[in-house]
Design brief:
By secondary structure, the protein is of the alpha/beta class. It folds into two domains: 3-223 and 437-448, Aldehyde Dehydrogenase, Chain A, domain 1 (3-Layer(aba) Sandwich); 229-410, Aldehyde Dehydrogenase, Chain A, domain 2, CATH 3.40.309.10. It has 17 helices and 19 strands. The strands form four sheets. The chain has a seven-stranded mixed beta sheet with strand order 11-14-15-9-8-16-17, sandwiched between helices. A five-stranded parallel beta sheet has the order 5-4-3-6-7, sandwiched between helices. Strand 12 and strand 13 (325-327) form a beta hairpin. Helix 2 (22-38) packs antiparallel against helix 4. One of its GO terms (molecular function) is aldehyde dehydrogenase (NADP+) activity. It comes from Agromyces flavus. InterPro entries: Ald_DH/histidinol_DH, Ald_DH_C, Ald_DH_N, Aldehyde_DH_dom, Aldehyde_DH_Superfamily, ALDH_KGSADH. Residues 460-493 are annotated as: Disordered. It is an enzyme of class 1 (oxidoreductase).
Length: 493
């Protein structure tokens, strides 16, 4: 595979694609969504065979994938994401005469996206990172995941054909395979940003490559997360389905979700007998591939072998003739001191249907414990009665969760990430390499950079900054003379 040719094609497409009129680019994304929907039956059949994920799960994932493409089409047409700002020339500007300055967000250039294993549609060839990069106006190169190569190739064919039929430039979308090719492109000076969803180990290696280039580039890696959940005594007493909901979140898609709750904290006297009963009703599920299966098997053995661990549901791991693993849920319990003393064995993410229930004595001690043990997560969750939340007694815990997590939930379970304008799917390291969102419309900002034009003639300004505003995007304008009134909106200081 000629990575030089691929990078060159993406670089040639960068300016023409960036200059694409918003509605044309939006129509191209809709064309991709329509084409994927039309091919969904074929694609889902391939995905089922390659990943072992259930047809119903994959059907929902295709729907999410195509609709997030349509959502980004709406974002493009709206134009607010460009953050167009215009400061008119002002000789009386209070800090000193101000020139005409205009700022807008522009595409960074070619983006390299490393596809994920556990979401063969929503975080793969045409998934969220791909949609955000294309919506931003960046040529895209996707490094296919080795866990579903046939699906990646067929999806890429569908996407490329749809973009071509919509009149997008040659080189705007390409697929590569193989670790060496992915690394070679990440090192290529023509690549201007990277995205990744996967393990902490691999993500950190790639992030270090991106940072050590002669010209470093931003690298948005979504890595590991254990997503702790904290349940108060009130929640345990008033939510009869709490433990069943927990088991459902842990075992869904065989626990191979980045938002799976890896830890559930409950009061020391909580009755945990329903855990074993709930786990016994969960059928075995194939893990994504032999490599992930072996890693889960080793991780499970480490947790079960840690001192002070009590088994609530031992679970099983079955190996077939193709070296595929089929697992049922494993749940253990520990107290806080055991968790602290054996953090090396217990705190690492278990990518699969395994979770740890932790008994605590004092809810007031949870904020400090959380900051100590969980410095960076995609999500954290609180289960509490309304009166426990209303009296402010959990405010410090909520502050700790907000400091260390991208999304804080009150009730419910973190699996199932809604694609919305307000969603944050990121968090402090080690949840991500760069704390930005990879889900929702704000994800587009990762692939944009600010450019200011000072004293530019109208004919040379990009369309979002022109006075006639041909794209019809929102413009934030600061007219001359306003600086004299600074501070008046704030009242007396």
């Amino acid at each position: 595979m000629d990575t030089d040719r691929i990078a060159a094609a993406a670089a040639r497409a960068a300016r023409p694609f960036a200059d694409t009129e918003p509605r044309a680019r939006a129509r191209a994304l809709v064309a991709v969504a329509d084409a994927l929907d039309a091919a969904s039956e074929e694609l889902i059949a391939i995905a089922t065979r390659e990943t072992g994920l259930a047809e119903a799960r994959l059907t929902g994932e295709v729907r999410r994938t195509t609709n997030q493409l349509r959502l980004f089409a709406e974002v493009i047409v709206d134009g607010a994401y460009l953050d167009a700002r215009i400061d008119d020339a002002d000789p009386d500007y209070v800090i000193g005469p101000r020139p005409d300055v205009r700022r807008v967000l522009e595409p960074v250039g070619p983006v390299l996206n490393f596809a994920a294993s556990n979401f063969p549609f929503a975080f793969s060839v045409a998934g969220g990172d791909s949609a955000a990069a294309l919506a931003a106006g960046c040529p895209l190169i996707v490094k296919a995941h080795s866990g579903h190569p046939e699906l990646s190739r067929r999806t890429a064919q569908v996407v490329a054909a749809a973009l071509a039929s919509a009149g997008m430039p040659d080189g705007v979308f390409q697929l590569v395979e193989g670790q060496e090719n992915g690394v070679a492109l990440l090192r290529d000076d023509r690549i201007r940003a990277g995205a990744f969803t996967g393990s902490t180990h691999v993500g950190r290696l790639l992030a270090d490559i991106a940072a050590s280039r002669p010209r470093p580039i931003p690298f948005y890696g979504e890595l590991g997360s254990v997503n702790p959940v904290y349940a108060t005594a009130g929640a345990v007493a008033s939510e009869p389905g709490l433990l069943q909901g927990f088991l459902g979140s842990v075992s869904g898609s065989a626990g191979q979700l980045c938002t799976k709750p890896g830890f559930l904290f409950v009061p020391a006297d909580a009755a945990l007998q329903p855990v074993a009963a709930a786990a016994a009703t969960v059928a075995e599920h194939r893990l994504l591939n032999p490599g992930i299966g072996r890693a889960f098997e080793e991780r499970r053995a480490s947790v079960l072998g840690a001192r002070g661990v009590s088994i609530l549901a031992e679970g099983t791991v079955r190996v077939d003739e193709d070296d595929q693993r089929f697992a049922t849920p494993t749940v253990v319990e520990v107290d806080v001191e055991t968790l602290r003393d054996h953090r090396d064995e217990l705190l690492e993410e278990s990518f699969g249907p395994l979770s740890v229930i932790v008994r605590y004595d004092d809810v007031a001690a949870l904020p400090e414990l959380h900051r100590e043990l969980f410095p960076g997560n995609l999500t954290s969750t609180v289960h509490a009665r309304d009166d426990e939340l209303a009296d402010g007694g959990l405010a410090e815990l909520v502050d700790a969760l907000a400091e260390t997590s991208g999304r804080v939930l009150f009730g419910g379970w973190p699996t199932g990430v809604s694609v919305t304008s307000a969603m944050q799917h990121g968090g402090p390291f080690p949840a991500t390499t760069t704390d930005a969102t990879s889900v929702g419309t704000a994800a587009i900002t990762r692939f944009l950079r600010g450019v200011a034009y000072q004293g530019a003639p109208q004919a040379l300004l990009p369309p979002p900054l022109r006075d006639d505003n041909p794209w019809g995007v929102p413009q934030r304008r600061s007219a001359a003379g306003r600086s004299a009134g600074w501070g008046s909106l704030a009242g007396e200081y």
